[in-house]
């Protein structure tokens, strides 16, 4: 007699697959973020991009440390690729609104980091597709 109920299905790696691929239980596999360029990339190339993104992307810990210690100069916004709003935020400190904005930024940092990672992902995909388009194709001998 089982005490803990039915066995849980095996974990599936959430990778983008070609259309029609399904996991063992028949449900569609969860996908990596898709763009128009993504269908031209293999699973290995997509994993490479996601690995690079994990290594090179913005860190929430660093963003919050910059917010805490250098928030008065909007260092967290510069770090997250929002230089225009960082300059505006610095200027608003002179009229007092910047301090309220700085407090609100504490809640906005995760979304800003997510947006920067998405921009980086799109750029990496475009670069990889361009590399593949300019790479010489191997010709197999006939016969």
From TrEMBL:
Protein topology in the membrane: Multi-pass membrane protein
Transmembrane regions: 61-80, 86-113
Keywords: Membrane, Transmembrane, Transmembrane helix
Keyword Transcription regulation included in the entry's annotation: no
Start and end residues of each TM2 domain: 59-107
Top-level taxon in the UniProt lineage: Bacteria
Keyword Transmembrane: yes
Pfam families: TM2 (PF05154)
Location of the protein in the cell: Membrane
GO (cellular component) term, any one: membrane
UniProt-recorded name of the protein: TM2 domain-containing protein
């Amino acid at each position: 007699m089982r005490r803990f109920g039915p066995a849980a299905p095996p974990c599936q790696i959430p990778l983008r697959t070609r259309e029609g691929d399904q996991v063992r239980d028949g449900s569609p596999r969860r996908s990596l973020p898709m763009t128009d360029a993504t269908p031209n990339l293999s699973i290995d190339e997509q994993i490479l991009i996601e690995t690079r993104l994990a290594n090179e992307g913005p860190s929430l810990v660093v963003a919050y440390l910059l917010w805490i210690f250098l928030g008065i100069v909007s260092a967290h916004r510069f770090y997250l690729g929002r230089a225009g709003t960082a300059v505006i935020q610095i200027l608003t400190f002179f009229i007092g609104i910047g301090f309220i904005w700085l407090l609100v930024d504490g809640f906005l940092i995760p979304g800003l980091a997510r947006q920067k990672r998405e921009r980086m992902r799109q750029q990496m995909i475009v670069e990889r597709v361009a590399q593949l388009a300019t790479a010489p194709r191997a010709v197999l001998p006939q016969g």
